[in-house]
User: What shape does this take?
Amino acid sequence: MEKVKVIIMGLGAMGGGMADMLLKKQGVEIVGVVGRGKMLGTSMYDHISTPRGDREDVIVGAMEDVITEKAADVVLLCTDSFTRKAFDKIKFIVEKKINVISSAEEMAYPMAQEPELAKEIDRLAKENGVSVLGTGINPGLIMDLLVILMTGCCEEVHSILSRRVNSLSPFGPAVMEEQGIGITVEEFNKGVQEGTLAGHVGFHESIRMISDAIGWKLSAPITQSMEPIVTDVDRKSPYGFAKAGNVAGCAMKGFGYVDGELKIEMDHPQQIEPEQVGVQTGDYVIINGVPNINMVNSPEVPGGIGTIAMCVNMIPQIINARPGLHTMIDLPVPRAIMGDFRDLISEEAKIVK
Amino acid sequence: MEKVKVIIMGLGAMGGGMADMLLKKQGVEIVGVVGRGKMLGTSMYDHISTPRGDREDVIVGAMEDVITEKAADVVLLCTDSFTRKAFDKIKFIVEKKINVISSAEEMAYPMAQEPELAKEIDRLAKENGVSVLGTGINPGLIMDLLVILMTGCCEEVHSILSRRVNSLSPFGPAVMEEQGIGITVEEFNKGVQEGTLAGHVGFHESIRMISDAIGWKLSAPITQSMEPIVTDVDRKSPYGFAKAGNVAGCAMKGFGYVDGELKIEMDHPQQIEPEQVGVQTGDYVIINGVPNINMVNSPEVPGGIGTIAMCVNMIPQIINARPGLHTMIDLPVPRAIMGDFRDLISEEAKIVK
Assistant: This one.
């Protein structure tokens, strides 16, 4: 069988990390990279950690030049957070008869906030005989799929608390700005009011993924809250700095109600240098049910590596899937790929023969 | 849509618990129960916790009388631990064109120890257009599927330790005997040598499920060890008693090697009244990889409820699956069913229309 052929669209921290990961794996190769502006015409190896060595070069190109009909088995689309922004790119790729895995948070469960676009993506994918999936560490695994899996050993579920306490220290300037690191409480509150602080994108997707999976019908719109984590001491991370009294993080919560009762709660405080103030990071799954579940993974799965791994590791599942829009709850579980990618692909599902 | 029709074969602790669970759920009904001996002709309600109330009665019958062609959408087969013992029953059910979920530990991954029978089950299932799955709490979820899921956010996996420290106190006389509770160390060691102590069945299945899922080829046969847990104090559980100096539990380990290196270790000490000696029970997933995973669910998911829930909760997945033998790694993740079973079944996959 031909190696599994991958095109990466967007060579930022996520797309670049996926390239590095793929270069260590067997039976898979990067056949194209889509970029923009000054990146066009440069080598992929100028933008990632892995040295080129004696590998064939991969030159960054424009979407129209790189993504041609059946040019690859899958495109890893790493450019957006929102379905609406990713839609035209997904449409373009699908019409070239190539499968898509998107790291856009909303794409993890696009029916939550963009039901019309989700239907249209499903229709386009089926029409072109390919599959589309959104995934990542969160949404995609920690605050939703892992929770759903653990309800699998429950006779009854009364309520769910999904908590992710994580460090933002490894992230770069863009995340520092999105989360309000270093600004004053006043500036933070203004940002919340004006909707300019992004915070975490994904509660709507995680809550709907859980409620749909276990068969709860939400009785009210999903709500969320956003509070500053004010630091008592100066905190400094590679790309962030928060003076004592200012904002060192952003604590978000999300709420899903069934018959007027709070059934699904998301609790996601993110901050720089949590260990400096004795905060233990971790991923928590707390299910009030029969039986109760009281699970913690500590420290938390790092967001960057986790998203990179989830997107790459789901490649076989999305190639093998029936045509259409998929989510993590209708595909076989993600898993690390320590062998040859080709061993996991069914012959008839392969696009590049 | 007609309700999802279920036949339960074997009305012991597991089958009976599944009946109780199903009676609380919507869109599903028990249309038959298969039993033997003195149970024949009695009411199902004589053997389970749920009172009959004004429900229609279900009379325990012989296999040939209850399991007729397309009499149900699925049979929950709760009679055996070993594939070889369950095989004739699975063959009988499948030839009546009904899906099967088996709680037999070896059936969780029958290709591990019975590759020929696994092939034959797959062939028979395909020939008859139905599906077969083995599942339970362990093997089936805690020491394998959960581990596999967590490797999904890993770029690399170096080694895996899967540990389940659980209490045997809720279990009855059969489990006390299988695990050697209350016997002397001498008797225990004799039982190990002569192969009369069952201990935990499932390491071969869990290790092969993990290694196949992530693409490790085992380089040596799977090995396991079995040691007595000797108690310093008298321990007493509802069905077990161990005098100080005697056996209060059974500590099993399993080992999977890749290229001569220990890559997958299973550690599963089971005992009565662990809290009496300060042992904290729990389910642990420890992955040495990129990133590391360090997860614990404490206390452990109870084995009985967990197995009951897993078998019932996988009913939609096995009805919807393509014909053939399936395992937990090729189906969508298990989840609690808090809504109507029919909402989860695809019309064309339903057997009893």
